[in-house]
Amino acid sequence: MSDIDIEAIKTSLDSEIEEAGTLAQLEELRIKYLGRKGIIAQLTSVIPTLPQEERRAFGQQVNDLKNKINSLLQDKQKTISSVPDKETSGPRIDMGMPGIVQDLGYLHPLTKVSEQICAIFTSMGFRVVEGPEIETEYNNFTGLNIPLEHPSRDAFDTFYLKTARASGEHLLLRSHTSPVQVRVMKSTRPPLAVVVPGRVYRPDAVDASHSFMFQQVEGLVVDKNIRFSDLKGVLEVFAKRVFGPDIKMRFRPHFFPFTEPSAEVDISCIICKGKGCSVCGRKGWLEILGAGMVHPSVFKAAGYDTVKYSGFAFGMGVERIAMLKYGIGDIRLFFENDLRFLRQF
Ligand code: PHE
Q1: pLDDT in tens, 260-279
Q2: Closest CA to 13 of 73, 75, 63, 83
Q3: CA 167 to ligand 1 centroid distance, Å
Q4: Residue 2: pLDDT above 70?
Q5: Cα 200–205–210 angle (5° rounding)?
Q6: β-strand 192-201 against 259-268: which pairing, if any?
Q7: Whose CA is nearest to atom 4 of ligand 1?
Q8: Which of 121, 176, 204, 222 has most ligand 1 atoms within 8 Å of its beta carbon, as the pocket-test mutant?
Q9: How confident is the model at residue 1 (pLDDT cuts 50, 70, 90)?
Q10: Which of the listed residues 61, 81, 101 is the one where a domain comes to its end?
Q11: Residues 300, 177 share a domain
Q12: Both 117 and 198 in a single domain?
C-alpha cells in the first residue's frame, strides 16, 4: 500500500465541504480536488509508480474518492442554491394573489363635450385651432369692431393684466374665443373653416348659471358666396347631432358688433318638447349660441376683400351645451371636483 492516506483526505474534504457557504467557495473546492492539477489528478498520476499488486486496490480507492467528492459537491450546491442570500431574498411573491386595481383616469365632462362639439364640425370639414387665453385688447375688441365705448371694454367688465405689451397695448384675459377669428384671418387666406375651443373669462359673480371662467367653441367660415343659409344648415346639423333628430331650431334677431346680421339661436326645449316648462322658463325654447355673418369691418381689419369674400361665425358656451345635454342644473358642479358628480360621465 502507498503511504498516501486517503482516509485523511476524506476527512478534510468533509469538513471543507461543510464550511463552504457560497457557490464560489464550492467552485474553489471543485478545482482543488477535481481540477487538472487537483488532488484526484495527482493521486491518479501516482498509480503507475506503485507495485503491480497495489495498483488495482489503490485505483479503486481513488475512484471511490472521486465519486464521493462529486456527490458531496452536488448535494452542497443544492443546499446553497435553495437558501436565499441577502441579494435575492425579499418578500415572497404570491402569484395567485388578486392584483391591485389601478384607478384609470378619464376626461372631464366639459372636455368630452367640447371634443364632441369639435368632432361634429370636423366631420363637416372644419379644422380645429386654438388661441391664447391672454389676448391683446386689439384682438379681443378693436379687430372685432367692438367700439371703444362698448361696456365690455370697461375695466370692471374685463380682466385686464397689469403688464402691457412693449407697444403700450393692454393685455387681458380674453372674454370670448372670437379674437381667434382675428388671428386666423391674419395668418391664413380663404377658403377657411375653423372651430376654436377654449377658456374665456368674465368678472361675473358666480351663481348657478354664471362663472368667471367658462369654455366656448367658436366657429368661422370664410369663402366666396357664403350665405346665411349655409350658417343655418351647418348649425342645424350640429344641433340635431347633439340633441337628437327631432329637435327644432330658430334664429332670433340679435346684435353683435362683429356680425351683421346677427342672431341668437334657440332649440326647442329638450325637456318639454316646446310646450313650456320651468327649464325653458315657459318659453318652449332654449338659447344655445350666438351667430351671424362676418361684419365687413372685421374683414377690413383683417385685410380681406369684402366684395370677394363673405363668411359666418358662431360662438357657444360648452357648459351650457353640457348642462342641457345632461340635465345639469348648476354650472358650479363642473368646477368643484366632486368625484360623485364627475364619475357619472
Ligand atoms: N363672441 C360671442 C359671445 O361670446 C359669441 C359669438 C361668436 C356671436 C361669433 C357671434 C359670432 O357672446
Answers
A1: 999 999 999 998 888 988 88
A2: 73
A3: 28
A4: no
A5: 55
A6: unpaired
A7: 176
A8: 176
A9: very low
A10: 81
A11: yes
A12: yes
